[in-house]
Every structure is written in structure tokens, then in C-alpha cells.
Design a protein that fits this description.
This protein has a domain at about 25-110. The chain is about 40% helix and about 10% strand. It is built from five helices and three strands; from the N terminus they run αβααααββ. The two termini are about 35 Å apart. This is Transposase, IS4 family protein.
């Protein structure tokens, strides 16, 4: 049996809040967006750090975006933050996603979602967890 909704204004506000997502990118994460380490082997080292790739792939999982749309989405986020950085290209994301082990959160939380990126890595928090 379905629960009958009585307070429509509160119910409507709750529906609007379902789409509320905060993305926090620290200065240290921005400074570590590009890879500075050399791998020591043949060929060019990766331009983007593992943190940058993991951040993009987590945003992809949260918003259910294809790789080309993800590239544009991350570029627009970086532009809004006035960061002089670019998103990894969709082909780079595809290739690096095969070698990078990203731990995705299994359960969907209710309420707010906070995506926090700092120099130690990326975390996704549900309502009241952070």
C-alpha cells in the first residue's frame, strides 16, 4: 500500500533537494591535477595524475555520463572554479580507467551528496557523513 502524501510543499522541497550535489576541490587537489612524476620507462609519462582520472570517473558514475560528455562537464566545472586546468580527454579517460582501480560507493544515499577532492584522494559522502 502506498503512503498518501499530505504535505505537498514539504514533499516538493524534498524532491528538489534530491538533485543537490556539492563538489569540493581543494587547492592541493588542483595543484596535483597534473602528474609531475616520471615513470622511468620508455615513452612519455602520464600528463594527468591518478587523482584527476579518479575524480573524473567518479563524476561519471554519479551523473551517469558518457566519456565525451564527461570531458565537457569537467571542463565546465574547472572553468566555473577559475582553475587554469583542462579535463583529460575522453580517450585518455577510457585508457586510464582500465588500469586504475576506482572504488565506487555501492549504496545510494538519501539527501545531500558531497564530493570532496583533496590531496589525499577523492571521497563521496552522503547526508550527514562528512
Amino acid at each position: 500500500m502506498k503512503k498518501k502524501i499530505r504535505n505537498w510543499s514539504q514533499y516538493n522541497r524534498a524532491l528538489v533537494q534530491r538533485g543537490n550535489i556539492n563538489i569540493w576541490l581543494s587547492e592541493s587537489a588542483i595543484s596535483k591535477w597534473q602528474n609531475t612524476e616520471k615513470h622511468g620507462g620508455r615513452g612519455r609519462s602520464n600528463y594527468y595524475s591518478d587523482l584527476a582520472i579518479e575524480t573524473c570517473l567518479t563524476l561519471r558514475a554519479v551523473f551517469h555520463l558518457p566519456l565525451r560528455a564527461l570531458e565537457g562537464f569537467v571542463n565546465s566545472l574547472l572553468t566555473m572554479m577559475d582553475a587554469s586546468l583542462q579535463s583529460p580527454g575522453y580517450s585518455c579517460l577510457c585508457k586510464r580507467s582500465k588500469t586504475l582501480d576506482v572504488q565506487y560507493r555501492k549504496s545510494a544515499s538519501k539527501g545531500f551528496i558531497d564530493i570532496v577532492v583533496d590531496s589525499t584522494g577523492l571521497k563521496v559522502y552522503g547526508n550527514g557523513e562528512w
